Inverse folding.
């Protein structure tokens, strides 16, 4: 078994022929033994750290979708299992797609997943979403009917937000829920955000470190809150249930955008009077990071 040779392209799908909707052929047979082995090691490590920390919804869905350490999933076969549960399919793309393309796929219950797997050199951390982040992090939540409705509604909301040029506000909702969301469950706070679920260190940090704030979900507050893209989050927002999240998003966003537009943006570590503070963070991690 040969590990990635150093001159292996970082993303061998980068030049793949793509359709108008940016989808490509996953060409599952072209994955190397080294790539399948990397999936298996990522999967085993992450499953171990997510047990007891991930939302029960996500863990149940992993079993229902037969996600396992048996090599990189074939998105067609995985989609057939997912579609039978919530009507969603996973479509292969080479890399990040333009926002309007992303929203159109979500609005049609298609989740664009990167077909490439991170190179060995980026085993622990990579910036853009690869197949492990997209399938281990995002797909299980799409097997939950309520969350599946929320993601479709988000796709439709995205197209409108672009017309109203308030996409940055909606992208913050995606960031603080779909990517970095926490939920209150019987056993305490649990994780449903894909960006956390696919990161071994942030899975522990998000629930157990004293540094970050943990604040009750508030739609307009979230739309005003800037976020960090290259480190742990300084603030996590907590929903009471996926039903409550969906309910909150059935509001007319037009009026919410109006409110948000006239108020100033909030820093990622800021807390305000109206916050439902669950844990007030020490922010120590960030203070030490940014030097004495
Ligand atoms: C829209 C969303 O907020 C974000 O900007 C995007 N995410 C993604 C994207 N494209 C892919 N493939 N995966 C994403 O997660 N394009 C845009
Ligand atoms: Fe993601």
């Amino acid at each position: 078994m040969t590990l990635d040779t150093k001159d292996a392209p970082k993303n061998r799908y980068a030049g793949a022929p793509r359709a108008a909707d940016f989808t490509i052929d996953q060409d599952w047979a072209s994955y190397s033994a080294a790539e399948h082995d990397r999936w298996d090691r990522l999967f085993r490590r992450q499953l171990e750290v997510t047990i007891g920390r991930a939302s029960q919804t996500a863990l149940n869905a992993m079993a229902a979708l037969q996600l396992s350490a048996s090599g990189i999933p074939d998105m067609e076969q995985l989609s057939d299992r997912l579609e039978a549960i919530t009507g969603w399919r996973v479509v292969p793309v080479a890399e990040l797609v333009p926002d309007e393309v992303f929203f159109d796929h979500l609005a049609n219950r298609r989740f664009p997943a990167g077909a490439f797997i991170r190179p060995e050199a980026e085993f622990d951390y990579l910036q853009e979403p690869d197949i492990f982040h997209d399938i281990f992090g995002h797909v299980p939540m799409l097997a939950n009917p309520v969350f599946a409705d929320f993601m479709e509604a988000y796709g439709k909301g995205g197209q409108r937000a672009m017309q109203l040029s308030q996409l940055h506000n909606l992208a913050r909702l995606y960031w603080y829920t779909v990517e970095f969301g926490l939920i209150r469950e019987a056993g305490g706070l649990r994780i449903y955000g894909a960006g956390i679920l696919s990161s071994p260190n942030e899975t522990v940090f998000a629930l157990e470190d004293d540094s970050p704030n943990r604040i009750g979900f508030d739609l307009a507050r979230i739309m005003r809150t800037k976020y960090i893209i290259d480190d742990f989050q300084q603030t996590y927002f907590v929903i009471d249930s996926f039903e409550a999240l969906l309910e909150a998003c059935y509001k007319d966003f037009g009026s919410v955008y109006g409110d948000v537009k006239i108020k100033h943006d909030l820093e990622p570590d800021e807390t305000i009077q109206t916050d439902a503070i669950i844990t007030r963070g020490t922010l120590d991690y960030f203070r030490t990071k940014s030097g004495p």
Q: What stands out?
A: The chain is about 45% helix and 10% strand. The chain has one domain: 28-290. Residues 129, 133, 137-138, 179, 194-195 surround fe (iii) ion (ligand 2) (CB under 6 Å).
